[in-house]
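Our consortium's second objective concerns turning raw sequence data into structural hypotheses that experimental partners can test. To show how far this objective has progressed, the report includes one record in full. It was chosen at random from the queue rather than selected for favorable results. The single chain below, 145 residues long, was entered without modification.
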Amino acid sequence: MNISDIKSGLGKINIEAVVISVTPIKEINKYGKNIKVSTATIKDDSGKIKLSLWNKDAEKVEKGDKVKITNGYASEFKGEKQLTAGKFGKLEVLEKGIEVEEESEDENKGEIEKALSKGETKTNIVVDDEEDEEPEISSEEDEEW
């Protein structure tokens, strides 16, 4: 399966991808237990997605790791799709130390480049400064750049 095929609510996801970033581990108390949690961003040739990492999984995943998720589950958090190995899935680190490109400072750069690469000369690109928002891309017949 490819990342681009993942839909919220989908289970039995089997995928391999490379970790391009990982947030620091946080410890939270849930139901009287201390739980470790972190979020990685993983990517394959089709796209990228957030990967929720819990307890031991949070400790074993690093930037540049190639991971395999077996029987994963996709959900949505704050309007964004995310993947987790969950209670019934498994996360394995297949390879360590893969060189990955740094995440762009300008999160909208990739979307803008995609729009421009389509060859449409009359495309307006509206970039919103809101965090976690995708740029709005619309084609206007009557307006020039």
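The partners drew two points from this record. Residues 109-139 form one domain. Residues 128-145 have pLDDT under 50 and may be disordered. Both points have been shared with the crystallography group to help prioritize constructs.
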